[in-house]
TrEMBL record:
Keyword Membrane included in the entry's annotation: yes
Key words, A-Z: ATP-binding, Cytoplasm, Kinase, Membrane, Nucleotide-binding, Pyrimidine biosynthesis, Transferase, Transmembrane, Transmembrane helix
GO function terms (MF aspect): ATP binding; UMP kinase activity
Keyword Membrane belongs to the record: yes
Chain's gene name: pyrH
Protein's UniProt name: Uridylate kinase
Pfam families per UniProt: AA_kinase (PF00696)
Binding site for UMP: G83, D103, T164, G165, N166, P167, Y168, F169, T170, T171
Binding site for ATP: K41, L42, S43, G44, G84, R88, T191, Y197, D200
GO BP term, example: UDP biosynthetic process
Source species taxonomy: Bacteria, Pseudomonadati, Bacteroidota, Flavobacteriia, Flavobacteriales
Annotated transmembrane regions: 6-28
Reaction(s) this enzyme catalyzes, per UniProt: UMP + ATP = UDP + ADP
Gene3D superfamilies tied to this protein: Acetylglutamate kinase-like
């Protein structure tokens, strides 16, 4: 009897201590990270890689690897993905299509990109859920805020597809909206440029980069970070934005670790 009691308490002790060690390691890993919950905004065009259209599988895999790195550090990752590599409502409208119809096509394009990213992440063994703002239940979960937060808490990457679910908006607006809803610490806008410059660095050789800039200065100087609706929503909700080069390996990890790369827009 005494042996049995000892055995039970030893087992309990082992389970408790193993669990505690696991949580301590996890907590230590997360502690090193500057941001605990992030919203990563990827444009559809970024997925094209060097192609003119569609999805470049090499680029997609690279992104999945980058995202995996930060989930392994315990960072909670939500992603909003654009659709510009497939369809933009505005360009549809300029060629005579009804704008709302075109925007619906654009929103569906973001779901296609979301599915591709989900697949790439799952190939890297990263648990992922795709939530869509438009009902498409056979393909993606509907967007339910509490459920999204629960997925994040369980260490799943949540991809938000379908933009805001409304025409006349962009996925930048969707990114800010979702970031606020899930109480993300920051929006990371992954681009092919390494930050915000005084003018377009791809056109102007004399352009200089900002390390930090206030929301007000961005507006005053007329710099393009996001469309005005998205940008103002971020400003009003005091949600910082970091613009950084997503195409350089290791950059995403550096940003979430608090390294000063890219440009941070703050109050
Ligand atoms: N879109 C929309 N409502 C939204 C988000 C997107 O109607 O809330 C449509 C719009 O037509 C847009 C397209 O989806 O042009 C693709 O999104 P976006 O242009 O933001 O993609 P990105 O530039 O990030 O690739």
């Amino acid at each position: 009897m005494l042996f049995l009691v000892n055995h039970i308490s030893l087992t309990t002790f082992l389970i408790t201590s193993t669990t505690s060690i696991f949580f301590i390691i996890f907590a230590l890993q997360t502690q090193n990270m500057h941001y605990k919950r992030i919203l990563l905004k990827l444009s559809g065009e970024a997925l094209m890689g060097d192609q003119q259209y569609g999805i470049d599988p090499v680029r997609l895999k690279e992104y999945a690897e980058e995202i995996k790195q930060i989930t392994e550090k315990g960072v909670e990752v939500a992603i909003v993905i654009g659709g510009g590599n497939i369809f933009r409502g505005l360009s549809g409208a300029s060629s005579g299509m009804d704008r709302v119809q075109g925007d619906h096509m654009g929103m569906l394009a973001t779901v296609i990109n979301g599915l591709a990213l989900q697949s790439a992440l799952e190939n890297e063994e990263v648990p992922t859920r795709l939530q869509s703002a438009i009902n498409i239940n056979e393909v993606a979960e509907p967007f339910i805020r509490r459920k999204a937060i629960r997925h994040l808490e369980k260490g799943r990457v949540v991809i938000f597809g379908g933009g805001t679910g409304n025409p006349y908006f962009t996925t930048d607006s969707a990114a800010v909206l979702r970031a606020i809803e899930i109480s993300a610490d920051v929006i990371l806008k992954g681009t092919r440029v390494d930050g915000i410059y005084t003018s377009d660095p791809e056109k102007d050789k004399l352009a200089t980069k900002f390390d930090f800039i206030s929301f007000e200065d961005v507006l005053q100087k007329g710099l393009k970070v996001m469309d005005t609706t998205a940008f103002t929503l971020s400003q009003e909700n005091e949600l910082p934005i970091i613009v950084f080069d997503m195409n350089t390996k290791g950059n995403l990890l550096k940003v979430v670790s608090g390294e000063k790369i890219g440009t941070k827009v703050n109050l």
